[in-house]
Amino acid sequence: MRNRRTHQPLTYDVRLPDEAQADALRLLDASRSVVNQALMLLWPLLDEFGSERAEPAWKQVGKYTGSPAYHGDRQWRCESETVGRILRAQAERKKAFELILPILSDGLLRPKTDKRPAGKNRPAIKEAITTLHKSLEEDETSFVTLQNVVEQACNHFFQHDQFPNRYEELQPLPLLKAGLLTYAGDDGSAKGQTYRLALDLDKGVALFRFRYPDEAGVWSWRKAATIIQLPDCLKERLRDGEMMAPSLREERLANGERIVVLDFSVEVKKEELPAWASVQRVLGADWGVKTLLTATAVDEHFQQVGRPFSLNTGGFDGRQARTRRQIDELKKKVSRYEQERDVLPADHSKRAWYHERLALYRREIDCCWGKYERRNRMLAHLASNVLLLLCQIHGCSLLSMESLKTLKSTGRGKGVRGRWRNYRNNSTIRGEIWRLLRYKCHLAGLRFQTAQPRGTSHTCPHCSEPANTYREPSDRLEAVKWGRWLWCDACSYNGDRDYCASVNIARLGVAYLQQMKTTSKARPCSITDPRVKPVSYTGAGSVLLLPPTGNHPARRVRGKICFSPGWLGSAFLQSSQRKAIFLRLCG
Prior knowledge:
Number of helices: 12
Radius of gyration: 27 Å
Largest sheet: 5 strands, antiparallel
Mean pLDDT: 82
């Protein structure tokens, strides 16, 4: 395997043709049984898998156990590689659990009231993890992992009325529910003893053969190779990259059907990161209050470059919230039907009816979850690709992103439950966007830097003085922490809160850039640091060619075009007009 600093693996899943589905499903069922038996045997030895990483996972598993159901040496290697990877991942989570164990207390929980059920005290969780994370020499990913484990511990408290004392109490045995088999333990695609894979990029196909058990349990090779049509994006990657060991994986469709896909792993070369001396512009991206994210470009002289960009997901949030409500209602029905079924005698005739209804509702829940997750993934890819495109348009070689340590609610939704659903979905999407940007920036040859969001939404980007936020421009009687409009009393500058925060994130990125240019070393700056200079907005030429908003902006609808102005010189435009008319409106 090549150096991960210069190369990166990418995975593309391709469904196996129908003629190979039945044989592949039997193979995955047999391997899943072996993997789960091995996991049960090795779970008490979890700590051993958190220390050794120099050798392949299958070798480490082989030190402690053999195959529970032997189907060949290389077949067991592939199965034990799957086992070892699962145990190594769980061992890393156990290390995170041992770090957060001292901070688990009742203060992380919100007590039950007449209007709200018991829940998690998220401000307290954030503060506790931030304090803990400051004492650790870890990267940004560690904070997300710690937060995930803390929330899992809180869920354990709600179920058992106490926090777990051991990781094994928190985490159930991670048995596979769907088949998964990696071929990394075999001898390669040409000489493998469990699979053979030949690529013909000119014809755009792959020839795949594998060992499998028949209906009687007898193992043999498929007589004819399975022809797999390769998508264009995979063919392009295979021409430029190096093919790694593939994996067979089971997926379940919304209708309950089981299918098998072959994951092609391709190791591609990363683009060389630009030298710090050649970086001249920074794109600052902020997790917004009324938008999912807002991005603004600033050059190394603290001048804004181009127009700001905002990604508004109001309608998307509504659809996701409705899907979550549907899932909650289905879960209530499942719980009620289970209680009614359990009351009946074991030989009662209506128990079969309950089993049928419960199976139907559970399939519907799986279908809703699949729809929910697919939407999130699609939006995450869209948002990350748009940010990379903005970097290309504005000539930005450094993307400065607000840290994931602050997750904001958009405030949309009816009541507390509606806002909480938006918060849950936004936190999920933002985490996915952040992970996608991390690897896409490496592939695109962009530098990626995270900025701490302390004060970025309450600091004037024009004079760097503290500023208050309000609900709207015309109502400045009472400052609101999560207000959507920023007003600076020092210089009378005012603007959209998300836009100002994105400019401040870009200012932090420029300060970081200047440190790297002068000393080749840098440390994160606070927004009050004197090295973070003010940004000039008026001379940046960022005014859109739309009607001026006036002192009291209000939403106006003209035919198919909806103007939703937020501050002078910017607007959100939604249109079904043709592209030529749309571009004329945008200037």
